């Protein structure tokens, strides 16, 4: 029996990682602006226009726009929409909604990719818990991004945490990915797995870690638009993502925002420079 070869992975120098952090800052600032802008009565296309303006004013280009025909600069996924929601003028936010916003930018040939989930106007207790579990699962996965660990350690950390938090569905059909001079690169990063299994992590790898947590079961399906992924049972979903570099000093969060400062300090990660 032959073991499947690990995919070749783009390794970055310290200088290239610094350039990726600059692309990540564009994404971080854009997500901050979008979080502040979210309010009832706004359409997801309104948010898309804010995002594109923010990205282009920074001298960058939206990663998503035109990607395999995708029409938006962000993915805007509301309530039961898990990922890849297409921004639309007729998709109007209502008080109490949840919106997951995924944003990518290219600066000087390097990509940044990050996602947040935001409550619109007010936060129901069950939604707050869903977002909390999903975001913490992401940080648990990021904490495994150290030289010598393996891809399975990331998935095991994410899935293991979710399983201890109650009946949340950990979406398995979609996951994280390598990132660098392209938005989606090898390796694919599962949000479940076994410790000690999978490709070994080495210094210079850059990975996007992005769990999706459903309030119901993990099962999802794609709509007829060819993009939008929804929960099969109609329950709400949350999505968080950061692009991260593996360094000798630990995980360097390339898309870190100011509101992540406490997490990064608590986990002992390298200071990404806010």
Q: What does it look like?
A:
The chain is of the alpha+beta class and 274 residues long. Helix content is 28%, strand content 24%. A 5-stranded antiparallel sheet has the order 8-7-9-14-15. The longest helix is centred in the N-terminal third of the chain and has 24 residues, at 14-37.
> Regarding quaternary structure, how should these chains be classified?
single chain
Distance between the termini: 49 Å
Overall radius of gyration: 17 Å
Helix content: 25-40%
Largest sheet: number of strands, sense, barrel closure: 5 strands, antiparallel
The 3D shape can be described as globular
Helix/strand class: alpha+beta
Strand order of the largest sheet: 8-7-9-14-15
Mean pLDDT: 97
Order of helices and strands: HHEEEEEHHEEEEEEEEEEH
Beta-strand residue fraction? 15-25%
Write the layout of secondary structure elements.
Elements: H1 14-37, H2 44-57, E1 61-62, E2 74-78, E3 81-83, E4 98-107, E5 110-119, H3 125-142, H4 151-164, E6 169-170, E7 176-178, E8 185-189, E9 206-209, E10 212-214, E11 220-222, E12 229-231, E13 237-239, E14 242-247, E15 250-253, H5 261-267
Helix pairs in contact: 1-2, 3-4
Short recap of the structure:
By secondary structure, this protein is α+β, with helices and mostly antiparallel strands.
List keywords for this structure.
four-stranded antiparallel beta sheet; 5 helices; 15 strands; 28% helix
